[in-house]
From TrEMBL:
Protein name: Isopenicillin N synthase
Keywords on record: Antibiotic biosynthesis, Iron, Metal-binding, Oxidoreductase
Family per similarity comment: Belongs to the iron/ascorbate-dependent oxidoreductase family.
Species of origin: Microbacterium enclense
Alphabetized InterPro entries for the sequence: DIOX_N, IPNS-like_FE2OG_OXY, IPNS-like_sf, Oxoglu/Fe-dep_dioxygenase_dom
Length: 336
């Protein structure tokens, strides 16, 4: 593993006694203080579930275009459903990918803060009922992994083990099933542009053998190829805020594969309830001394309330959905 550009952590160490668990927490804290990204093994996700998820993804993207467009996200005020190639943007530039976005299955609500508009039902393809079953199983397993990680993080940061559980409320999750089609342009294309995730924690599964993910380290882009049996894990802006920069959200991007190749990936975002505010963690003195402060980017402010971060991200990424369903929110942002 020495040739990898990111550290490798084994979650199963948390179940191998106090010493092994303490080593894992130390490595977890160091990885996310120094890099913000790491590989995670020992999650208990079996090869059979991975294979079913990959097949379901391939089957979805192989559906006739009319079937996919029947659940296109421009029909959802909650930013759910299918996004065609070129339908999402990062930093104003088109991302060369297609995807389906799946969040918590809830009834839509009216009124309240703008981020309440992110709450609502999913759009599922009628021609592929099995997709919902495998995504639900994936969601439930990764929710357990995420909770276990956050409890380890809390202890590693000098807080009580249930710190994040107490402040999360009903988690706001998001699963994206993404296909990056191959490009034959002479220069690399933007599969997804450089960005930081807006929440707390991301668990990324990548189709075996398919590269393209790059992470920014010390001002340089380094490759993060998939590792068999491992997830790529990174923290988001809200955890940077809660630790006042002791942990740092890191820029990352995806370069499109070369035609005729393609790449499937499935990021799972585990975040607090939309109305949750993560308070600033009172770090031990030796850790607080190494906190770098929240990165100041006037074009990308980090909000304490998760819903504000999530809404900011969705309005930017899907301007067509925003213009159709939320012109008042766009006008309010333009006036502020």
């Amino acid at each position: 593993m020495s040739e990898l550009n990111l550290p490798v952590l084994d979650l199963s160490l948390l179940d191998e006694g106090p010493d092994a668990a303490a080593r894992f927490r130390d490595d977890l804290r160091a990885a996310t203080h120094d890099v913000g990204f790491f590989y995670l093994t020992g999650t208990g996700v079996g090869a059979e579930l991975e294979a079913r998820l990959l097949q379901a993804a391939k089957d979805f993207f192989a559906l006739p275009e009319a079937e996919k467009l029947s659940i296109e996200n421009v029909t959802s005020p909650h930013f759910r459903g299918y996004t065609r190639v070129g339908g999402e943007r990062t930093q104003g530039r088109v991302d060369w990918r297609e995807q389906i976005d799946i969040g918590p299955e809830r009834a839509a609500i009216t009124g309240g803060p703008g981020y309440n508009r992110l709450i609502g039902p999913n759009l599922w393809p009628g021609a592929q009922p099995e997709l919902k079953d495998v995504v639900t199983e994936w969601h439930d397993h990764l929710t357990g992994v995420a909770r276990k990680l956050l409890r380890a993080w809390a202890l590693a940061l000098g807080a009580e083990e249930q710190y994040f559980d107490r402040h999360f409320g009903d988690p706001q999750t998001l699963i994206k099933i993404v296909r990056y089609p191959g490009k034959d342009d002479p220069t690399p294309q933007q599969g997804v542009g450089a960005h930081k995730d807006s929440g707390v924690l991301t668990l990324l599964w990548v189709e075996p053998g398919k590269g393209g993910l790059q992470v920014e380290r010390d001002g340089e882009w380094v490759d993060a190829p998939p590792v068999p049996g491992a997830f790529v894990v990174n923290i988001g802006e809200l955890l940077e805020y809660a630790t006042q920069g002791y942990l740092r959200a890191t820029n990352h991007r995806v370069i499109s594969p070369r035609f005729p190749d393609e790449r499937i990936s499935v990021p799972f975002f585990f975040n607090p309830a939309l109305d949750a505010r993560l308070p600033i963690i009172e770090l031990p003195a030796e850790l607080a001394a190494e906190a770098r402060g929240v990165e100041d980017d006037p074009t990308n402010p980090i909000h304490a309330t998760y819903g504000e971060n999530a809404l900011k991200s969705r309005l930017r990424a899907h301007p067509d959905v925003a213009e159709r369903w939320h012109p008042d929110l766009l006008a309010a942002r333009a006036a502020s």
